[in-house]
């Protein structure tokens, strides 16, 4: 090991609380070696032991133990593969995993084996998104998605050979993490003022990358600075700041189910027979999220028209609406036939609802009383029954999964997919017809593709999203 590399690793270990000795002594418990065979290590130990008779022999370890300990922030258990006393040649694990190119073809468990590696790539993806570089954003997110799908931890870069979406940059980041337990580029991004400020601002309800970047360029850095300049803010952003503490706190499944009961009661009161379906991350099996999405429909096509304003008035009469923004349906077959048209056109309300807290949750004592309610972000979306299956698929997410599913449909099947339907771009609606193109084409959809979509959505067990992608519609 060279002098500069030894100095770097020593500094890294000490920064994480490890005690590193410069000379061999009776206090040494572990000796880490790089590019050293078991035979060479044992000979070195015998030579050092001759100078310190009776001294306890330290454990001889390969550099892989050190890098894993750096990643964990504490000494990891010494396994056989780490010990240099084992006189067997170390074999690099080779990738035996067959990985589909499209993220929509890969199941991804909520808990996976490569959290540190995937989070590092997602940090770089997020930074690319803040810079408006969609190509880099997708590259890093797709590589992170592959890591989440692997059946075992990555301990060597050779395990990633032959897997899709691992280019030179992503591979370099992984190699540095495996060798040193940290990546200089990732740490630099995480510590930068711009990245931290952009993360803070984009977490505000109604604030997207463009607005956050403009505020940053104008010298704004904190929420208090925004509150001091309300003239800069839209009504949505003012509501986002007003309820920021609640909205930045994850919503648990129990709260999501309580909100569903409130919305279902309002919908039943307004239109008996209508249904309310919880979507988003909770439908994928997540235990918490940052907002709650509901799809509303009715078995009889057309009955859903005009439903949402009545539901909102009912919720307002109960004092449950803190903020809402209504968007009318703008279904237009011309838009739906565009290849790049991925946003749906359903009627919807973007809301902040007041969720009452159960009595036992509000007992915080006289010195620190707990609130009796909390603000929660809720999206209510109304869809015609004929389009509900595709709306459910689109609103279940994640954004990368949906993007990959659309890419698979287009590139492999020659069909276009969105939250309204799956259709052939070569077959438009009949001249003078108001019928949307996906309605007559649904019977012609290849059964294999629909079967694949059903298997993906209905696969048992919780499924994690490959990775999030910033919403391009937020300004």
UniProtKB/TrEMBL annotation:
Alphabetical keyword list: DNA damage, DNA repair, DNA-directed DNA polymerase, Magnesium, Metal-binding, Nucleotidyltransferase, Nucleus, Transferase
Superkingdom of the source species: Eukaryota
Family label: Belongs to the DNA polymerase type-X family.
SMART domains documented for this protein: POLXc
MF terms (GO), sorted A to Z: DNA binding; DNA-directed DNA polymerase activity; metal ion binding
Gene source species: Cricetulus griseus
Source species taxonomy: Eukaryota, Metazoa, Chordata, Craniata, Vertebrata
Gene Ontology, cellular component aspect: nucleus
SUPFAM superfamilies reported in the protein's UniProt record: BRCT domain, DNA polymerase beta, N-terminal domain-like, Nucleotidyltransferase, PsbU/PolX domain-like
Any Gene Ontology biological process: double-strand break repair via nonhomologous end joining
Pfam families: DNA_pol_B_palm (PF14792), DNA_pol_B_thumb (PF14791), DNA_pol_lambd_f (PF10391), HHH_8 (PF14716)
Localization terms from the record: Nucleus
Residue ranges occupied by any BRCT domain in the UniProt entry: 1-83
InterPro entries (UniProt xref): BRCT_dom, BRCT_dom_sf, DNA-dir_DNA_pol_X, DNA/RNApol_mu, DNA_pol-X_BS, DNA_pol_B_palm_palm, DNA_pol_lambd_fingers_domain, DNA_pol_lamdba_lyase_dom_sf
Residues at which Mg(2+) binds: 291, 293, 379
EC primary class: transferase
EC number: 2.7.7.7
Reactions that this protein is recorded to catalyse: DNA(n) + a 2'-deoxyribonucleoside 5'-triphosphate = DNA(n+1) + diphosphate
Cofactor(s) the protein needs: Mg(2+)
Protein name: DNA-directed DNA/RNA polymerase mu
Physiological role: Gap-filling polymerase involved in repair of DNA double-strand breaks by non-homologous end joining (NHEJ).
